[in-house]
Design goal:
The protein is of the alpha/beta class and 199 residues long. Helices cover 43% and strands 14% of the residues. The structure holds zinc ion (ZN). Zinc ion (ZN) binds next to helix 4.
């Protein structure tokens, strides 16, 4: 028996397909959205569609952005000779929030995970190697998470870079094991960055 109208059920189903949203949260969100003025619901829907249509990958670092180059890559103030490799745009945002990192980034969009069938070709590694081939890069800081996948990726990336002779460092393991970079406070992030060691 259906307790809800078809439209509500559909909305709940769509919302519960989002990561981290269970059936209960989806119901709560659906009823909240319906309780709002139509104008507000429309703004939410429009912002989803417009983000999906207009957001693209930065031509240089592969993070998500509105323009051809993201603000970090486009800034003349950033040190293009230091590249920090992170897993997601959220990790990039975490480091940007500290306001202390002056280099640029490379966003892999994931990590190598043999268990989940994610290999080196499934993340943005080729794009990183193309950037390194330009010859202007002096250091690559590997800031993948300290999870098993993050460590596997760090090891793989460092081996890939080794033959180029470019200095490769790994952020200190002050970052809690399995911890997402975005959930770590700025002080811990900066300590991990300062304490990085050469691989
Ligand atoms: Zn960029």
């Amino acid at each position: 028996m259906d307790y809800f109208s078809g439209h509500i059920s559909d909305l709940i189903e769509q919302l519960s397909s989002l990561p981290g949203i269970g059936a209960k949260s989806a119901q709560r969100l659906a009823f909240f959205i319906i309780s709002q003025p139509e104008e507000k619901a429309k703004r939410l829907a429009d912002s989803i569609v417009s983000a999906r249509q207009n957001v693209r990958y930065c031509k240089c670092c592969c993070t998500l952005t509105d323009a051809e180059l993201c603000p970090v890559c486009a800034s003349p103030k950033r040190d293009k000779s230091t590249i920090m490799v992170v897993e997601t745009p959220r990790d990039l945002a975490a480091y940007e929030k500290t306001g202390k990192y002056e280099g640029v980034y490379h966003v892999l969009h994931g990590a190598i995970s043999p268990m989940l069938g994610i290999g080196p070709d499934d993340i943005r590694l080729k794009e990183l190697m193309v950037r390194l081939a330009s010859g202007d890069v002096k250091e690559v800081i590997i800031a993948t998470n300290s999870s098993l996948e993050g460590e596997t990726t760090a090891m793989y990336v460092s081996r890939l870079i080794k033959p180029t002779g470019i200095k490769t460092t790994r952020i200190a393991s002050g970052v809690p094991v399995g911890g997402d970079l975005e959930n770590i406070d700025e002080v811990t992030l900066l300590r991990a960055l300062d304490g990085r060691t050469e691989l």
